[in-house]
């Protein structure tokens, strides 16, 4: 796409030269006076470059450039002066008003081409940088974190509103302020307590001058905890992120408290207990479990690996080991008993959790099994005794019947009495 150039000059020959030299590569608009040029611009037309004659009958170039710099559609448009006056005082005046270059009359086509192309290239770079900065600023403003970037002189070159909000910085604090200004605001607001302001500012600013990767936390007077991560950049300076982690810290504190309660509870139950997450990693266990199997347990280790190691240590066969691992991998709910080589019997209960993890309880039922066996033996003895007693009773009944029959036959039943 061709670049748009506005040429403002009261001499037609100048326009002819400009069109001849630049017409093939650029779209040229011409104005023979300053007023005509301003009318074009007021109509909303935008240009990539303006070539402006200094000496004109209605408005001179100095008057025109001042108006151009006040208009939103031309304030950033580069202006090159065309003039036959090349003294240093005139050039300084033009540059002070915002001109980017001078081209002396009579115009040299090679000079015109080179300087116009140079300024168009610079404008394209500036436009790209502006576009990238707009994207960066928009991105920064839509981030939940506070963000800031300082250059090698510790001057802020970027920051977002969340950064200012987290540290309650004044509205006037912006790009151009320094890290010392930032720390001074913090100290004056009581962020660091009752301390000497300037001495504390320097103590805080000194580490920033080393540009090292760091992570630290700051607690505001209201209890808000801010996590700060600092990363240096190759070109000099550093980028910092600021995150309000108050809620996270409270959650961690509550979680730690709950864990303490759970662990205290586990240590006071008469079962060995192991809890694993959805990946089969041990989350928590109690001492009784370790004592039960005489093998140390590390949280976050694989429970399947622990189980395999233990079963191998007691001489379990491979098929039994693989079956045990399968039950773990498939999170099979159930309850079963495992006899151990030392004569103990352990009752194992597997409970699946909704998140894919599980809880296993281990109960030493050796004494209970012994009691059950003793009870079985006693029941057998009682059964034998009952069998003998019933047999004796039946024999006595049969004997009594026979004697009664004999007594009947003898006709003297009252003389005979059977004692059971």
The average pLDDT value, as a whole number, equals 89
Number of strands: 15
Which oligomeric form is depicted? single chain
What topology, given as strand order, has the largest sheet?
2-1-3-4-5
The major β-sheet equals: 5 strands, parallel
Relative helix content = 40-55%
Uncertain residue ranges: none
- Beta-strand share of residues: 15-25%
Overall form? rod-shaped
| Class inferred from helices and paired strands | alpha/beta
Give the termini separation.
130 Å
Radius of gyration, taken over Cα atoms and rounded to an integer in Å: 48 Å
Order of helices and strands: EHEHEHEHEHEEHHHEEEHEEHHHEEEH
Number of helices: 13
Would you write up a description of this structure?
- This protein is α/β, with parallel strands linked by helices and 420 residues long.
- Strand 14 and strand 15 (358-364) form a beta hairpin.
- The chain has helices at 12-22, 34-42, 61-68, 88-96, 109-141, 161-166, 179-188, 197-208, 246-266, 287-293, 303-313, 318-329, 366-410, and strands at 3-8, 26-31, 49-53, 79-83, 101-104, 146-150, 156-159, 214-219, 225-232, 238-244, 272-276, 282-285, 334-339, 345-352, 358-364.
- The strands form three sheets. A five-stranded parallel sheet has the order 2-1-3-4-5, sandwiched between helices.
- The mean pLDDT is 89.
- It contains 13 helices and 15 strands.
- The radius of gyration is 48 Å and the shape is rod-shaped.
